[in-house]
Design a protein that fits this description.
Oligomer: single chain
Order of helices and strands: HHEHEEEEHEEHHHEHHHEHEEHEH
CATH architecture: Alpha-Beta Barrel
Structural class: alpha/beta
Number of strands: 12
Strand order of the largest sheet: 7-8-9-10-11-12
Number of helices: 13
Distance between the termini: 23 Å
Largest sheet: 6 strands, parallel
Helix content: 25-40%
Shape: globular
CATH topology: TIM Barrel
Strand content: 15-25%
Radius of gyration: 19 Å
Number of domains: 1
Length: about 375
């Protein structure tokens, strides 16, 4: 088993653009032209090729690119009893575009009665670990799961089974503790909570999203902090749990804007993760000042290179940004990555695979010049 732990000075969030062969196979499966076994064979082949490319570029973290998922978060939710979904007819509002991801909601009490399907996904990638690489498993945060089921647009379904949010949180935490243990037993030592809830909470329209006033928004922040920490509490000591925070990533569009200032006292000071992968690729993320709130010896991975456009960033400019961030957190606790995945959903962002790999090559080059090889 690899003994490496994320984050690394050059890193990435987790998802990658789906190859044309995989996109076609998933479409053929949806149309009934191929079997589930045939689709799995294509997925396996494409993931094997992806891991080879991750290794060839010299990255220490490896992932399956989320190639077996429709969306970065929803497929994970579908692995629990009590959750159902169907194709959406209107999607979610993003900047200039609707995110056409499945409507996902409760049809019963939450439970994890069997091995979660993602455990098998992890085990396939685990075989490729070596002395230089380690698998990083990405899943949505407990807060993201809670938001999906408790936000106004879905609460009508949830209230059929949970009249009190505290009871929903209790079952949700129990499910996460089970799945974290399942990952651990399968050999996972690097888990990443992907979390857009904090990105929504900084938006000027956040009270409307959650159906509360400004005072009520503070209670939502406290609730999300508590459910994340409750799920993490008691996890195996030799398992690292990090988190990634962004403001939406669908087909190169975004959902929210706002600086980290209003959530730093919750997220940075009190969430019990090992490191934060933070979106910082444009003005929507604000300045680095909130990084002063990062507690203990926790690390921050600066998402300074965008995945939303193919044009390469100026290397000197990125170095200047890293230097600016080091005024608030020591350089040895900083790392560099793209700001989000390249394909949080199957549709992917508006850049080519060649541009994707050029972005990652740039991240590695800058990191080695800043921190050394």
């Amino acid at each position: 088993m690899s003994t490496l732990y994320t984050p690394f000075h050059y890193d990435f969030v987790g998802s990658f653009l789906r190859p044309a062969e995989l996109r076609q196979a998933r479409a053929d499966y949806a149309d009934g032209k191929i079997t589930r076994e045939q689709l799995t064979a294509v997925e396996d082949r494409c993931i094997t090729d992806l891991v080879g490319k991750e290794k060839a570029l010299g990255y220490h973290a490896i992932t399956d690119g989320e190639f077996r998922r429709q969306a970065w978060h929803l497929d994970f939710m579908w692995g629990f009893s009590g959750v159902s979904h169907h194709a959406t007819d209107k999607g979610l509002p993003f900047h200039d575009e609707q995110a056409m991801i499945d409507d996902t909601y409760l049809v019963g009490k939450l439970a994890l009665e069997e091995t979660h399907p993602f455990i098998h996904h992890f085990q396939f990638v685990k075989q490729f670990e070596d002395e230089n690489t380690v698998v990083k498993q990405t899943i949505p945060s407990p807060a993201q799961f809670l938001a999906q089921m408790w936000m106004p647009f879905n609460r009508k379904y949830t209230l059929n089974y949970y009249t009190k949010v505290e009871d929903l949180c209790s079952d949700l935490v129990a499910c996460y503790k089970k799945v974290i243990q399942q990952f651990y037993d399968a050999g996972c030592r690097n888990l990443q909570f992907d979390d857009c809830t904090w990105g929504m909470l900084v938006d000027p329209d956040a009270p409307r999203f959650y159906g509360v006033d400004r005072k009520g928004l503070e209670a939502v922040k406290e609730m999300f902090l508590e459910v994340n920490n409750a799920a993490i509490e008691g996890h195996p000591a030799d398992m690292v749990i990090n988190t990634h925070v962004c403001r939406g990533n669908y087909h190169s569009t975004y959902a929210n804007r706002g600086a980290y200032n209003t959530i730093a006292a919750y997220l940075f000071a009190k969430e019990n993760v090992n490191a934060y992968y933070l979106e910082y690729d444009d003005e929507r993320s604000g300045g680095f000042e909130p990084l002063a709130e990062v507690s203990g010896n926790k690390k921050v991975v600066l998402g300074l290179v965008t995945t939303k456009r193919g044009e390469l960033e100026d290397k000197d400019y990125i170095k200047q940004r890293i230097e600016q961030a080091s005024h608030y957190l020591p350089l040895d606790r900083l790392c560099l990555s793209p700001q989000c995945g390249f394909a949080s959903c199957e549709i992917g962002n508006k850049l080519s695979e060649e541009q994707q790999w050029a972005k990652l090559k740039l991240v590695k080059e800058i990191a080695e010049e800043v921190w050394g090889k």
